[in-house]
């Protein structure tokens, strides 16, 4: 797993390629009945994406494992957990892109799933990715009690008090003036919940004790929010080709964003503060948290 | 739990009322943010439905419990499992009714969720009901290893090789001539998988041994299929007011059904044979399976 690699870009590349292989293996083949549904599921999940959630699972796993332990079961379990969060993320994008939601035609530089497979197949593909995520957690070769903890966390983070709740607030707020607090709540649910779950899942699966879990939680809260602030900044500053999705869409739809509420300078100040919080939270975890620290830098500095 | 009640209608009434209370408690309140999403989730789940899946969980639990054991933990666990299958069923109906799928405006005699709350909220409500089902399984007060078994079963039964896969085949087959075998596969996935899961979940939660599980599996396979044959017959013979949903819809849309493929007589013969298979499978389980037997009779004899 390259736990002591200092070359972060190489480590991230390795993890991105690895999770692609893992997802390819875990998704049913296109030959399985019904083939079009499985093709749509694979299209939605494979072939792109930053894989930040998977990287967070792996990096949090590294930060939590006791050094020197034979970690093969945990490594397999981390693959399952990383795949599970990527499946939930992929399903949420498919549904978010549908005509009844954001009505997006471009995702990761390709036609969205419903453009390629039709709305019904896209919706059903999303519906089927969700239980597959829970199935993968159930197949982890670790103590059943830890599996149950992981399942609970994923379920809460993906549900009406987490990711889906945030999407519902987002939908309902188009054209409305949200306060900074309301905006923060929306994003902490819509994007933050699953980013945080990714970090904590890595910790649970690798057997993190309560001190490490506490550090992971503080780190996760900071990067969860930072991620969305960057997204809002990029929606203004980047172009569609770089983003791989339609730029300027939030402003065009009069959606509240950090930039629209706090201004560009205010948003960048907030981002710096969150970045510092993330690093501070990792200090007690020592050098095994190096990749988590690098992911925080990566999230803050990304241009797409 | 009335394990020795012989009055089946009274037992079923009791279970239907009980699961309504249980679901009401398990669903987030409408005061939780976002309120409209939670209102839509509660609308989709509460206030109607035959609750056959919940009844199957309870009846299979009764058939699997050792008589005389203090069963309070199992009773709580059965509530969670029964609620979980009803949540999955409710979400599937909400998504199935959407304009991109069956485009139904009536369900259980009321406007469908998207008619009442809009398409986006209805889709998101379905999306959020699914993880809630897995969360409830994770909260069962039984051995974690049994929770993991239950989670795996629910995930597989609700996924692309189960319920959602069946819906995808159903969508893709409108206007096509399916063979009897193809139709059977579609229904065994679309409806059968979750009915079977309900029976087996009751067994897992109540600690059924392998002999009992074998009987439950054979029973479940028979009633899963029987349920759909009855549905197809009712689509032809019943009226909209009795059904609480639009009658004659399958024929109008040229959807393949048992009646369209085997004819009404052939369908009724098949139904009788499945009914007999269900009863035969329960014989080794003895008198504690009485309610499972009555549910088989109920499924075959229902008029809505």
From TrEMBL, chains A, B:
Domain of life from the UniProt record: Bacteria
GO molecular function annotation: metal ion binding; prenyltransferase activity
GO BP term (any one): terpenoid biosynthetic process
PROSITE patterns according to UniProt: POLYPRENYL_SYNTHASE_1, POLYPRENYL_SYNTHASE_2
Named cofactor requirement(s): Mg(2+)
Signal peptide: none
Coiled-coil zones: none
UniProt cross-references to InterPro entries, sorted A to Z: Isoprenoid_synthase_dom_sf, Polyprenyl_synt, Polyprenyl_synt_CS, Prenyl_diphosphate_synthase
The entry's keywords: Isoprene biosynthesis, Magnesium, Metal-binding, Transferase
A cellular-component GO term for this protein: cytoplasm
Family recorded in the similarity comment: Belongs to the FPP/GGPP synthase family.
Protein known as: Polyprenyl synthetase family protein
UniProt organism field: Parapusillimonas granuli
């Amino acid at each position: 797993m390259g736990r002591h690699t200092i070359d972060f870009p190489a480590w991230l590349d390795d993890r991105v390629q690895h999770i692609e292989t893992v997802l390819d293996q875990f998704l049913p083949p296109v030959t399985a009945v019904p083939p079009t549904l499985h093709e749509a599921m694979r299209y939605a999940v494979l072939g792109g994406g930053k894989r930040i959630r998977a990287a967070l699972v792996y990096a949090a796993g590294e930060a939590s494992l006791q050094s020197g332990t034979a970690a093969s079961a945990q490594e397999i379990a981390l693959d399952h957990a990383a795949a599970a969060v990527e499946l939930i993320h992929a399903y949420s994008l498919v549904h978010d892109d549908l005509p009844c939601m954001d009505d997006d035609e471009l995702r990761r530089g390709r036609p969205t799933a419903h453009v390629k497979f039709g709305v019904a197949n896209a919706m059903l593909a999303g519906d089927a990715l969700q239980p597959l995520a829970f199935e993968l957690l159930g197949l982890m070769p670790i103590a059943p009690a830890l599996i149950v903890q992981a399942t609970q966390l994923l379920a809460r983070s993906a549900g009406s008090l987490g990711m889906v709740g945030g999407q519902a607030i987002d939908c309902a707020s188009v054209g409305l003036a949200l306060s900074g607090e309301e905006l923060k709540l929306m994003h902490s649910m819509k994007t933050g919940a699953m980013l945080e779950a990714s970090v904590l899942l890595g910790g649970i699966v690798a057997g993190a004790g309560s001190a490490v879990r506490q550090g992971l939680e503080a780190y996760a809260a900071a990067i969860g929010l930072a991620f969305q602030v960057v997204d809002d900044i990029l929606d203004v500053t980047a172009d569609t080709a770089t983003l791989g999705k339609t730029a300027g869409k939030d402003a065009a739809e009069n959606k509240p964003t950090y930039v629209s509420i706090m201004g560009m300078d205010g948003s960048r100040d907030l981002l710096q503060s969150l970045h510092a919080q993330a690093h501070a939270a990792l200090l007690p975890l020592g050098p095994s948290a190096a990749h988590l620290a690098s992911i925080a830098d990566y999230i803050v500095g990304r241009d797409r």
